[in-house]
Amino acid sequence: xxxxxxxxxxxxxxSMLTATIVLAGCAVGPDYKRPDSTLPESYGMATxxxxxxxxxxVNPDWWMLFGDAGLDALVQQALxxxxxxxxxxxxxxxxxxxxxxxxxxxxxxxxxxxASSRTRSSGETYTGQKSGGAATFNNRRVNxxxxxxxxxxxxxxxxxxxxxxxxxxSRFARDAIRLTLIGQVSSEYLALRSHDAEIAVSQNTVxxxxxxxxxxxxxxxxxxxxxxxxxxxxxxxAAAQSQLAQLKRLRGLSENRLGVxxxxxxxxxxxxxxxxxxxxxxxxxxxxxxLIEARPDVRQAEEKLVxxxxxxxxxxxxYFPTISLTGIYGxxxxxxxxxxxxxxxxxxxxxxxxxxxxxxxxxxxxxxxASAAQKEALANYRMTMQTAFREVADAxxxxxxxxxxxxxxxxxxxxARRSLKLSQARYEAGYSGFLDVLxxxxxxxxxxxxxxxxxxxxxxxxVDLFKALGGGWREAx
Length: 477
Known about the structure:
Outer membrane efflux proteins (OEP); alpha+beta; about 475 residues
């Protein structure tokens, strides 16, 4: 404790602290206010003609609604080992550490200082001649030094507001990457499973066309077919084999992408049954557009806006004087043995003020820069909101129309299968030409793959909707 016999100084410091408390609520610059929404209140459309099966709140682990243990395991592995997510976590840690660093400005800085020196003065200088010649002496010093800036204009508070908002923005950026990662894994897994189903269809097609080729060759030997028919059968078989190789290549690429997403290069996934994947619940009619405010990228954009708004106050605070308190208390002595004696005590206390008088417009330019950055952040926030609204609307349209498309494709597939069966029977009975069989085979193969593709697109649209809504929804009303 600094001992002093100067009450006026104590009264002055007390008055200064009292003034600080009184002015504690004063902070220059605009306070943040969330911008008004320019979006419609709801989406106003249903995704299905059937009643929605959604509960009041969707499980945040929305990918589990597909009911596939393989997908569940891949998502968990991705969350644990994906390198993009790990980098986002590291950025969040850095942002939180910076916020703690800025928060330290609220408190005084206290340092322990010490010094020891041995000095010889000249006897040939004015001081040396006057004092009787050269002198050699020691100096030992130990003291505590305190410094503190009075945040009268809110500069430190605005800096902390900005740093805190940036830390939250980094947290939401991590959440956005997490949501995107889960969506990528889910979509890629569905693509891989659709390739499994397409490969199974192509293998059946190859087997069927091999059987057709055997029949045509047998008919050729019996004189009931021509060499042209054999060549046509061989051509369609080669086309089916090429299609099978193409699908196997696409499956391998999906497998490799899943390996990178989950942090497991060289990952191998056994073939699965795409047809067993259920469709997830669909949202009810009239989803409120305010749901997108929970999206991590929207919340990240808003926190960026909060930070930019606070930095205007930081820039404006430079117009006002900076007031700081400094003080030291310690001991100083020529001899180490006397360093902590009563007569060795030294102390000082000071109030400093620094106020800009002329800076050639530098402060004004910084305020203008901060204001422009706030306008940019506002535009980015509104664009993020509008993009989020469009993505949800796109997913809702896709879910509705793909459901109808899939029903049409099912009817087309059933018709193509009947046509193929009839054309083969008529050919074997000699009632129609081989070209009818080839056309029926081609049509049936296309119908099979088209149906599988529409089913995959429908499931992928469900993933897109969950991503667009930030992972889930609540019923309107």
